[in-house]
Amino acid sequence: MNTFNSDNDAFSEAERQVIYRVMRSRRDVREFRPDPVPFEVLRRILEMAHYAPSVGFMQPWNFILITSLEIRRQIKELFEMRNAQEIALIADAQRRQLYGQLKLEGILEAPLNLAVTCDHRRDSPFVLGRGPMPQTDLYSTCLAIENIWLAARAEGVGIGWVSILDPQAVENILQLPQGVELVAYLCVGYPIEFRARPMLEEVGWKERMRLEDLIYHDRWGIRFTE
Ligand SMILES: Cc1cc2nc3c(=O)[nH]c(=O)nc-3n(C[C@H](O)[C@H](O)[C@H](O)COP(=O)(O)O)c2cc1C
Questions:
Q1: Is residue 221 part of a domain?
Q2: CATH code where residue 82 lies
Q3: How far is the CA of 163 from the centre of ligand 1 (A)?
Q4: Using an 8 Å Cβ cutoff, are 32 and 109 in contact?
Q5: Which of 60, 108, 136, 163 could disulfide-link 55, Cβ–Cβ 3.0 to 4.6 Å?
């Protein structure tokens, strides 16, 4: 594996802009073309995931590549069940109707599904830095997932995160051992399009909040002014 010795060099302005463009244009994708993602492309994406930071360098992640149509059908069924329950929780009739129109997964259309897991047992019992904040192994796994999302965007590959699933049921289907937790169930494939804005923003579900309202100074709730 490449050791990236030369990467201590500063980034040029052009390189910086590319990185920011990748981050800004990353999208959650729910509509996919059927053509498969070549393994060498997938391998590069997963390599970037594997470069994510992790508590105590624990690297708690595994990546389960799911191509079986039978498994994907089972997962889709779990989605349908859970999604119906979620809709029922929305009190406002208009919001409920809007939610009902949203496409919130691409489990069967995507040529590949990818489960990302966190192995809490890895290096246990002592993981450097995890003791005071036991969830840091999950946070580490999420960082790997963001790397997947960004590297995929750079490769022109779409990723859709599906959380509207009973995680225990997914864990059973994937036969995860005790101590290994499902963190993300992802749909992977070439997208019909990368939208300019989040779909939830486009349909009027929610707008991007103002960054200035989220930056505090010294204590909670104190607005930061330059
Ligand atoms: C933890 C997590 C779970 C998500 N679960 C779903 C989901 O079940 N279905 C869905 O359509 N999008 C899901 N999303 C995608 C978000 O809706 C999306 O990231 C957000 O609306 C912003 O849009 P963007 O990712 O295109 O910028 C999830 C995202 C995250 C980070």
A1: no
A2: 3.40.109.10
A3: 8
A4: yes
A5: 136
Contact 69, 143 (CB under 8 A): no
**Domain span holding position 57:** 28-195
Ligand 1, CB within 6 Å, residue ranges: 27-28, 30, 104-105, 161-164, 198, 200
Atom of ligand 1 nearest to the CA of 201: 21
Distances (CA, A) of 37 to 76, 109, 160: 21, 13, 14
Ligand 1, closest atom to CA 104?
11
Radius of gyration of the chain (CA): 19
pTM (2 d.p.): 0.96
Domain contains 200: no
pLDDT digits 0-9 by tens, 72-124 = 999 999 999 999 999 999 999 999 999 999 999 999 999 999 999 999 999 99
Whether residue 20 lies inside any domain: the answer is no
CB neighbour list of residue 206: distance below 8 Å, 6 or more residues apart:
200
Assess if residue 141 is contained within a domain: yes
What is the number of structural domains in the chain? 1
